[in-house]
Amino acid sequence: MFLLTLLSCVGTVISCRAQNNKLDDYIQKALINSPLLRDFKNQLVSNKMDSAILRAGYRPQLTASSTGTYAPVINGYGYDNALSNGKTFDALITANQNIIGKNRRDIQLEGVTLNSDSINAASKISSQDIRKSITEQYITTYTDQEQRDFYLEVYQLLQKEEKVLKVLAQKSVYKQADYLAFLVTFQQQELQLSQTSIQLKNDFARLNYLSGIVDTNLVALEEPVLAATTLTGLSNSIFMQGYKIDSLKLLNDKKQIDLNYKPQASVYVNGGYNSSFILQPYKNFGTSVGFTVSMPIYDGGQRKIKHTQLQLQENTRQGYQQFFTQQYQQQVNQLVQQLQATQELQAKITRQIKFTEGLINVDSKLLQTGDITIADYVIAINNYLNTQYMLRQVNISRLQLINQLNYWNN
């Protein structure tokens, strides 16, 4: 009963081949559902707002203000009217304009732009990480599916042979013990089919989990088509972009520090009502203009200390970049070598499978006429199973190596 249920489930999955899902389907789902990538998008929008705020600060700033004071003098006690004027009131509108040179404006805007570039670089690396992890899990799940289908095929083959051998054993063409030995192999194949089906369900559930898909139904997967991309060099890598942007940000920070030690000026103009109500208060409507200029002379050596801090950060950045460059080159070279060796091994195993398949076909015909022992037939089957298993393991290694190589070569 268990076997019938298992075969029914397997048949249901195979019948869903028209609904095959592709690797790119899961990658796109994962990219859309990733909260981290949405966070980066929101950061970029917020950074654009920072740029807009900075640009708005370059325009004249209008301020409305009003103050009123009353300092009573009672029995000769109170503030000196010469200082307090007794009572005052003003209602003014002031326009203030900071005088910002082009160089200062460009440096400040450059800082905002570099921050956006840094967010973009981090977003690209996160996207690359998602593609890599989804591809890894997809390859694993697809291999489970292929292994399940293979075990089902072998099981159905043995099922046909079992019926023939049972009749031959009853006719004493083969010994009962030989038939029971074959039956053990047949039952082991049933267990393999069951175990692989369970593993397929677990890995498929993990694939959906990583992609942010809420679904427990099995859907047939198409074979992942992966090809190693042409090596473009580290200078064009998205991983190197982050180091370059960090270097530019440190340079911009130095410029920002130097800006604070340059003269800063602003002008203002206001107009409104300002009166002490002492003399002709109805005439106290007017306006005024002015300016301010400031320049730091001595701050205790803070500028030098800040520059030293930034230089330490630059030294650290260079150390990380140098280490990454060495590790990157070593990693890529190792992956290329492993991929080449794996492809050569895959070709050898493929040739070996052709021999084992031919041997099984011949042995199957001889088995039905009693011209071969069941033990020899079982050995041929086990050799075929082992070779197929090796091929699938080598193929999954090949695909995973291509996935890793493409990850570092983007």
General description of the model:
The chain is α+β, with helices and mostly antiparallel strands and 410 residues long. It has two domains: 2-58 and 102-261 and 301-408, Outer membrane efflux proteins (OEP) (Up-down Bundle); 62-99 and 264-295, Outer membrane efflux proteins (OEP), CATH 2.20.200. It is 69% helix and 11% strand. It contains nine helices and four strands. It has helices at 2-14, 23-33, 35-57, 81-84, 102-170, 176-211, 238-259, 302-369, 374-408; strands at 61-70, 87-99, 264-275, 285-294. Strands 1-2-3-4 form a four-stranded antiparallel beta sheet, with no helix packed on it. Helix 5 packs antiparallel against helix 7 (238-259), helix 5 (102-170) packs antiparallel against helix 9 (374-408) and helix 8 packs antiparallel against helix 9 (374-408). The longest helix has 69 residues, at 102-170. It is elongated and about 135 Å long. Mean pLDDT is 86; it is low at 1-18.
